[in-house]
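Private note to self, pasted from the team thread so I don't lose it. Backbone tokens:
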């Protein structure tokens, strides 16, 4: 039976992950090619499906391993390693199938699926042998706590890399006032567009607002700079020399001689060739700054109507600045937000409630997307992290001034189970003061600290004291709640037994 399930699970994994088996090996094959192939978007649906795929493999392998020679923890390690190796093999093979994409998240979710299969086997075995009490012992809960901690930290390993922009498509042109397909027009005036391959600091933002000379502050980091103050020009050259000229699409209008340029559904600007040089620089740094000055001509236009876009169509983009009625909309492609950059998007309300000029400074670095509107104090931002992604899947968010909520949700998913398990362990070993003190101190502090170290690794971001304190608070509150609940339940049971004994004595006397 076990061999049959194992073979069937292997066939299922290889068929579903490698179909249609159209392998294509590049002439310039190298380890770097395989490494780069892992930089693709990963979605929540894929994560859940990958877990399900590997559950039969973990279940059958646990069944076949010699349990007399291997303890439970040894079996778990073997299943985890086998799931990891199988998943890694499949993901490497997918690098040579054009219709498939490899991600580090897939390896982690597949490995987790193998672990779920392992626990599923022991759970069913315990039920069959009527040994369910073994799952409620101190040893079992200690294993649950350690296993869950390792799992939570392991799943968090790829999170720092989810903020990179390596998935940006170098085939997209720079378009002003529309989409490449011409079906998302914007009507308004555009005076300048400057793009840099780094996120400028708050102090530099202040200088731009005070001096009004964006190109000076951006300096050598500029990868595109267009002045659009003369609407009579047929073409507009990039002052940095990185990108091709912008030229008019559509037909001439009554506003063709407007200064600065006027964009509409009849007439917009695009580069003749893809903006590949600028995109390559941004992919390398995973940062950018975009500075522009705009004025809408219609406060009711929607689509969202594209103002500035590095995109190939309505549903594929690297970056888009747009207008949705009176609101400003920002979309950035990343492993978190996907190819359309819309889940989530940053919505800034009422920027276009008037027809006035607005200077916009947009920066992105380490998952933090920021936009300054007209002044340093008018700042709006969103962190493109798994926290905001989970919040978006669970709740129909339309604006993203919910930073605290999304972080509480994300850290709660990780640390509430840890706090509950810690409270149960503490209850089981009650009465041993120093053991309890050591357990509480290490069990609460170390998982939270290790998670922050992981989340800050590979980025310019330092450990967040605010997030660390939030993690500690969630673990501690969960710990206290389960401890108090279990104490009250035990006291209630004792009281019931005491009353039952008194009742029996009274009935015996009579």
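Design output:
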């Amino acid at each position: 039976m076990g061999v049959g399930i194992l073979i069937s699970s292997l066939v299922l994994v290889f068929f579903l992950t490698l179909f249609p088996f159209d392998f294509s090996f590049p002439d310039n094959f190298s380890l770097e090619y395989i490494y780069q192939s892992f930089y693709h978007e990963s979605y929540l649906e894929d994560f859940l499906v990958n877990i399900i795929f590997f559950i039969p493999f973990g279940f059958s392998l646990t069944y076949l391993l010699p349990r007399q020679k291997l303890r439970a923890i040894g079996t778990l390690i073997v299943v985890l390693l086998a799931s990891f190796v199988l998943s890694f093999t499949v993901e490497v093979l997918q690098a040579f199938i054009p219709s498939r994409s490899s991600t580090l998240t897939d390896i982690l979710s597949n490995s987790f699926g193998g672990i779920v299969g392992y626990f599923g086997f022991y759970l069913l075995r315990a039920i069959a042998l009527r040994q369910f009490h073994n799952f409620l012992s101190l040893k079992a809960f200690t294993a649950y706590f350690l296993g869950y901690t390792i799992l939570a930290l392991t799943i968090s390993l790829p999170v720092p890399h989810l903020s990179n922009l390596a998935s940006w498509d170098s085939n997209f042109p720079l378009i002003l006032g529309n989409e490449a397909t011409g079906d998302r027009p914007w009507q308004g005036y555009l005076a300048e567009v400057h793009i840099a391959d780094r996120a400028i600091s708050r102090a530099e933002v202040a200088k731009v607002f005070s001096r009004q000379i964006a190109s000076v502050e951006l300096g050598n980091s500029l990868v595109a700079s267009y002045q659009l103050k003369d609407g009579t020009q047929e073409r507009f050259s990039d002052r940095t020399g990185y990108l091709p000229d912008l030229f008019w699409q559509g037909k001439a209008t009554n506003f063709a001689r407007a200064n600065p340029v006027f964009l509409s559904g009849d007439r917009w600007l695009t580069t003749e060739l893809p903006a590949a040089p600028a995109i390559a620089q941004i992919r390398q740094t995973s940062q950018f700054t975009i500075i522009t000055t705009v004025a809408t001509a219609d406060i009711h236009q929607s689509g969202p109507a594209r103002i500035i876009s590095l995109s190939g169509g309505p549903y594929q983009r690297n970056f888009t600045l747009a207008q949705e009625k009176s609101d400003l909309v920002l979309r950035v492609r990343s492993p978190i937000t996907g190819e359309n950059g819309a889940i989530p998007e940053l919505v800034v309300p009422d920027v276009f409630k008037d027809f006035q000029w607005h200077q916009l400074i947009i920066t992105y670095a380490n998952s933090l997307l920021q936009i300054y509107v007209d002044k340093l104090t008018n700042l709006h931002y969103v962190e493109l992290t798994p926290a905001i992604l989970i919040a978006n899947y669970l709740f129909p968010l339309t604006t993203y001034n919910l930073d605290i909520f999304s972080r509480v949700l994300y850290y709660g998913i990780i640390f509430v189970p840890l706090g509950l398990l810690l409270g149960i362990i503490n209850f089981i070993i009650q009465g041993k003061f120093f053991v309890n003190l050591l357990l509480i101190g290490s069990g609460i502090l170390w998982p939270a600290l290790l998670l922050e170290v992981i989340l800050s690794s590979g980025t310019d971001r330092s450990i967040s004291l605010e997030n660390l304190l939030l993690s500690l608070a969630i673990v501690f509150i969960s710990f206290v709640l389960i401890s108090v609940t279990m104490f009250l339940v035990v006291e209630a049971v004792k009281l019931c037994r005491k009353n039952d004994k008194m009742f029996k004595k009274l009935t015996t006397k009579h």
